[in-house]
Amino acid sequence: MTKLTMTVNGRSVSGEVEGRTLLSTFLRENLGLTGTHVGCDTSQCGACTVHVNGLAVKSCTMFAQEAAGADVATIEGQAAADGTLNRIQQAFQDYHGLQCGFCTPGMVMAAAALLKDTPKPTEAEVRHHLEGNICRCTGYHNIVRAIMAASGQDVAPVAAE
Amino acid sequence: MYNFDFEQPANIEEAVAALKDEDALALSGGQTLIPSMKQRLNAPTKLVSLTAIDALKGVCPDGGQIAIGAATTHATVAAEATDYPALAALAGGIGDPAVRNRGTIGGSLANNDPAACYPAAVLASGATVVTNAREIAADAFFDGMFTTALQEGEIITDVRFPIPEKASYQKFEQPASRFALTGVFVAKYRDGVRVAVTGASEDGVMRWAEAEAALGTTFSAAALDDLSVSADGLIHDLHGTPAYRANLIKVLAQRAVEAAL
Lengths: 161, 261
Ligand SMILES: Cc1cc2nc3c(=O)[nH]c(=O)nc-3n(C[C@H](O)[C@H](O)[C@H](O)COP(=O)(O)OP(=O)(O)OC[C@H]3O[C@@H](n4cnc5c(N)ncnc54)[C@H](O)[C@@H]3O)c2cc1C
Ligand code: FES
Ligand code: FES
Hints:
The complex is a heterodimer of chains A (161) and B (261).
Chain A (H helix, E strand, L loop, with lengths): L1 E7 L2 E7 L5 H8 L18 E4 L2 E4 L12 E3 L13 H8 L9 H14 L5 H7 L11 H10 L11
Parallel strand pairs in A: 1-5
Antiparallel strand pairs in A: 1-2, 3-4, 3-5
Chain B lengths: L4 E3 L4 H7 L5 E4 L5 H6 L7 E4 L9 E4 L2 E5 L4 H7 L4 H8 L4 H6 L2 H7 L6 H8 L2 E4 L3 E3 H4 L14 E7 L3 E8 L6 E10 L2 E7 L7 E2 L1 H9 L24 H19 L1
Parallel strand pairs in B: 1-3, 2-3
Antiparallel strand pairs in B: 4-5, 5-8, 6-7, 6-8, 9-10, 10-11, 11-12
Helix pairs in contact in B: 3-4
The complex binds flavin-adenine dinucleotide (FAD) and FE2/S2 (inorganic) cluster (FES) (2 copies).
């Protein structure tokens, strides 16, 4: 076991890990941050997406020790301390961007990474950016609408066709 | 996944020394190695991470060529290889954003997946793969599916691409994996044209000599009209038959020439 320290959602945390401990495992099992979901564990679905030093990564495809000293952001750090949702989370609620919610943490973190670099993406850019995030419920339509709305762009108030 | 010791050396010498252990493996972006370790297809006793070694990172244009450190991520190549736009576009089309933020060129080449994108760029560019021990020409580097000229413990340090006059990579994506069902990279240099094909052959990435000769005479899509590719030795899987891939090679090569013009 190796002692590991990193910053998660602005807080310094540490824990004992093995070589094979994944970042997703460290977040969920050592820190109890179970908002980061493990959908496939095979690098395909993106439910486990978190930010490491500002970049979106699949936390099931990175060892915890590779994040030693890094600044990690997870879904738990997205809302304000009083529980007020951030604009992306609020838009997912307003535009029904989730059904079962399993993919949602990864979707929100992927969207946050997109809007940081591309504040006003086109619909095509949003869809392209979400290629690594799989949703089995929504058909993506309302996820895309939510992200467009979160970026401050007009979204027609019609239901999915 | 079996457990292993994790090391993260700060320079190439320490990494090479750490890899002398039998059953030690290099870890770069982990986007191939970690999934394969979960499946126990790989079970190293020690992983030597290369990603803390600054000397292995960066995109460096230098005269008529561009050198890319082995541990440079696909996202960095996509953003910074502006002197070689076809290469930047290839890197930007690998997998998805999260894969591009971790996966690296060195890992992709060492792995030599028969459907990977970078091998096509390296072979079509006649690039040089530089290791801690030697320089290997592209034509001598790839040695069949998942096999390369790398010796045990040898690490790629950087890859040097001569910048072509014109080039394009056309990838027909396998939508579930986002790898190339077939992909063709065409690069036109002053002294000739090189065409490399990935995702098609059972021997991994390959050149298409007839197309190179035809395009060397006239660099136009029509120059390939009369050529056809034999289906012998092409991959047969649930995504496509050898005949389908043979057709794709020609179609994609023509699209690549058109996009390059
Ligand atoms: C969802 C998904 C989609 C993908 N889509 C594509 C795609 O469209 N096109 C494509 O080309 N690839 C694709 N990939 C693969 C991706 O590009 C990987 O990043 C790449 O194949 C391996 O690079 P890595 O840095 O992650 O290497 P690792 O996984 O860290 O290592 C792979 C192998 O290379 C060895 N190695 C690593 N670095 C070196 C070095 N410097 N010297 C010697 N040996 C080394 C390791 O020991 C290991 O055996 C995809 C992967 C995923 C998970
Ligand atoms: S759980 Fe990590 S990509 Fe699916
Ligand atoms: S809302 Fe159920 S998987 Fe996306």
